[in-house]
Amino acid sequence: MLEIPEDDAARQAVKPVICYPVESLPKPNIAALKTFRQLDVKSDEVIVAPRDASCFNALAGSFFRIFSIEGAQVGDLNLWNDQNLHERFCSGKTRALHLTQEERMWSCFPCLRPMATVFEDTLAWYGIDAYKDSVYAVIGTRCDPYTHGLLSGGEATPMLSFQLNLGFG
User: Fold this and answer.
1) pTM of the full structure
2) Chain segment 18-54, per-residue pLDDT in tens
3) DSSP readout, 81-133?
């Protein structure tokens, strides 16, 4: 049986620890993107039926739009670099770095670079809340000192999972 602790409200009010600093990351040039977007012409359309999947190719620098035409849906997005299939969207690194309008989706190691930018977002009104979270549920992975060092530009900081691994030897 589920027992709710007496201090449940206090536990839920604890501010989470942010593993990776985002302040030092370069911001996308939204003004330039708006200019390019005005010049962009629709070249294709892919409709994915509920409980189905599909693929499309978006060249570097192009725009693509994802929206639901039959009401609210849950969807998965997977991105790969078609010139290097070892480079793919890394939800763990992106989740640690938010995901909302004007934020980027990052690739995996060793590249760790922006693969896509959320240019427009119909749910942007939510923004980033007090806990530095957004409306999207991007599945994440554990934090690690290597990523922290790359993103902060500083020395790698040992994280909890790193310390646990050391402890288990």
Assistant:
1) 0.58
2) 666 667 778 889 899 889 889 988 899 998 887 777 8
3) ETTEEEEEB-HHHHHTT--STT-EEEB-TTT--EEEE----TTTTT-S-TTS-
List CB contacts of 155: < 8 A, sequence separation 6 or more. 149
| Rounded Cα distance, 97 and 167, in Å | 28
Give the number of other CB atoms < 10 A from CB of residue 138: 17
Q: Among all chains, which residue has been given the structure tokens 């035409």? A: 69
> For residues 118 and 146, is the Cβ–Cβ distance under 8 A?
no
The dihedrals phi and psi of 152, each to the nearest 5 degrees, come to: -90, -20
* Dihedral sign for Cα atoms in the order 38, 44, 50, 52: negative
Q: Which amino acid is at 84?
A: N
Q: Is the peptide bond before 158 cis (omega within 30 degrees of 0)?
A: no
Tokens of 81: 């670099």
Pair 59, 51: CB distance under 8 Å? no
Return phi, psi of residue 139, to 5°.
Answer: -65, 130
Cα dihedral sign for 35, 41, 43, 48? positive
Domain positions in the chain are 26-39+76-138
